[in-house]
Specification:
The complex is a heterodimer of chains A (about 100) and B (about 475). Chain A is built from 4 helices and no strands. Chain A is mainly α and about 100 residues long. Chain A has a domain of about 40 residues: Glu-tRNAGln amidotransferase C subunit, N-terminal domain (Histone, subunit A). Chain A is flat, with a radius of gyration of 23 Å. Chain B has a domain of about 260 residues: Amidase signature (AS) domain (Amidase signature (AS) enzymes, Alpha-Beta Complex). Helices cover about 40% and strands about 10% of the residues of chain B. In chain B, strand 7, helix 8 and strand 8 form a beta-alpha-beta unit. In chain B, helix 2 packs antiparallel against helix 3, helix 9 packs across helix 11 and helix 9 packs across helix 12. Chain B starts with a helix and ends in a 14-residue tail after the last helix. Classes of the chains: A mainly alpha (about 100), B alpha/beta (about 475).
Amino acid sequence: MALSKEDFDKLAVLSRLRFSPEEAEEFRNEMDDIIAFADTINNAVSGGTDDIKNTSVNAVAYTALREDAVRESLPNEKILSNVDGSRGFFNVKRCVK
Amino acid sequence: MREVLTVLSDMLRKGEITSQELTEKYISAVEEVNPQINAYVHTTFDFAREGAKKADEMLKAGNAGALCGIPMALKDNICSDGHLTTCCSKILRGFRPYYDSTVWSKLKSEGAVMLGKANMDEFAMGSTSESSCYGAPLNPRNTSHVTGGSSGGGAAAVCANIAAYSLGSDTGGSIRQPASYCGVVGLKPTYGAVSRYGLIAYGSSLDQIGPITNSVKDAALVFDAIRGVDENDDTSVDYNYGGPSANALTGDIKGLKIGVAEEYFDGINPEIKDAVMDAVKLYEKNGAEIINVRLPILKEAMPVYYIIACAEASSNLGRYDGIRYGYRADNYEDIDDMIYCTRSEGFGREVKHRIILGTYVLSSGYYDAYYKKACILRNNIIKRFDDIFNTCDVLIAPNAPTTAPKLGHHGASAVEMYLSDICTVPVNITGIPGISVPCGTDKAGLPIGMQILGKRFGENTILNAAYFYEKTAVSPVKEYEGGVRI
C-alpha cells in the first residue's frame, strides 16, 4: 500500500521527526518499498481475522516479578551529570515568555 | 582455532605474565592496529590500567576467575559507569552512563579489563556497521570489505587480536553475522539467559547480549561469566545449566540428531552452501544422525521480524528528547521544537526509517494488520521450531547468503539489506540460542560461517556441537597475523 503524503506527515509528527520537502519525498518513496515488504505477511497462510481477534500479542512470558519494595535511587548529581543540571534540574532554555 | 582465554588465563595464573604487562601489550596493539580498522570508537586505557592492577592483586590472592586480568571490549551500546557509551549515534554524543550494565558488573567483579567500546551500526540497526556515526569498521581479513553488523567493531577487534574477546548484542543476527564475516566465533544465547540491564534497547523482545571470541571454548567461558537471572531484568531466567558450560565440552557428537532444512539454503551463495553441507557430512561421518526437516514458514520470518523490531524500536527510541542526556539541538524556539530538532538532527537515516515504520505498524488502523498479525505469525514460527526440536537436537544452517560484501555495496535498497538477514532472524523471533563458527573461506579468501541452533537453554548442546567441528575440521579459516599474538 502506497503511503500518502498526508499519512507520511502524520507519521513524522507521531515520531517527532521533521523532514524538508525533498527529504520527505525521498523518505516516502523509500517507505513505500519498506511497507510493501511488510505487507508480504499478508501472504502468510496462517493468522486470519479470527486469530487476530483471539490472540494475545505477548510472545515473551514475564514471570519473574520482584518484590514491590523501595530501593536506593541513583544520586541526583549522577543523573544530572550528562546535562546542564546546575540548579538540580534538567535545565532547558526559557520557553514560557 | 586458538583458545586464547584458556591460554591467557593459564599464563596469568602461573605468573608468566602479569595483567598489567598483558594490558600494555593490548594497548600498544590497539594504538597500532585500530587506525587501520576503526574497531574501537572510544578507548578507556587508564581504566584498563586500573583494572589490570586490581586483577593482579586478585591473581596474587588466588581468588581469580577464568577471565581475570584479560583485556576485552564492550559494544558501544553496553553501559559502564562513567565511560562514553553512544550507540554510535550523534544523538548520544557525549553520553556517559551513571551505572554499570549487569554483564559488565559481573565481568568487572571477575577482574576483567575493559580496553574500550567497539564500533557498531547506529543503535544496532544494520548488517554492515556502515551506519555508525564514526564511520564503518573495516574487516581485518580484507579492509575493502565490511565487518558485518551490527557488532562489527567487536568482531573486528577479536579477529585482529586487539581484544581477547568482546561482548556484542544480537537483535536479528548482530553477533553471529559479523563473527561469520570476520572468521571468529559468535554466540547468541537464549532470550533470558543473560541480563539485558544496561544494554541500550533496540527491540526489547529480541535483544540478547553474547560473546564474540576466537574459539568455542572461549565463548563458553564468557557465557559462563555473564549468564544468570537478574532482578533488574524481569525477562531474565534462573535456569540451571548443571555447571559451567565450558566443562560440558566433550566434542562427542555420536547419536546427535542434526536437522537440516533446505529452506535455509534458498538463494544462498553456492560456495557457502557447499561449505556448510561439507560440515554436515563431517558430523554424519563421525556418528551424528542427519534429519531433513521442512521450514516453509521461514519466509514469513523476515517481515515478522522487521515489523516487531521496528515497532519496539519506535517505542524504545521515544526517550531521546534532548532533555536528559546526549545531543541537544543548538537552536530551537520552544520545548516541542527542541525535541523535533534534536531528533531530526541526532538520528541517522536508517534509524529514522525504522522509527517511521514502527510508528506506522503501531498506529490506529494498521495495528491489527501489521503488528498483531506479526505477533501471531511469531507464535506460529516459535511452535514450528519447537516441533523441530522435538525430533532434532540441533539445526545447522548458513549464517548469511554471502560472505562479507565490499564497503558500500551491501544491497541497493533498505529492503535488500533487510533480506540479507534471512538466516539469522528466526533465532531472535523464537528466542532460541545460536552459535556461528567459521567453516571455510570463499575463493576470495573471505570467511564463511556456519550456524548451529538449539532449543531454548540448549547452549551446552550447540557449544558442544561447535566444539566438535572446531576440533575436527581441517583449518576452517586462517588466523589473523597482527595484534597480540600469544
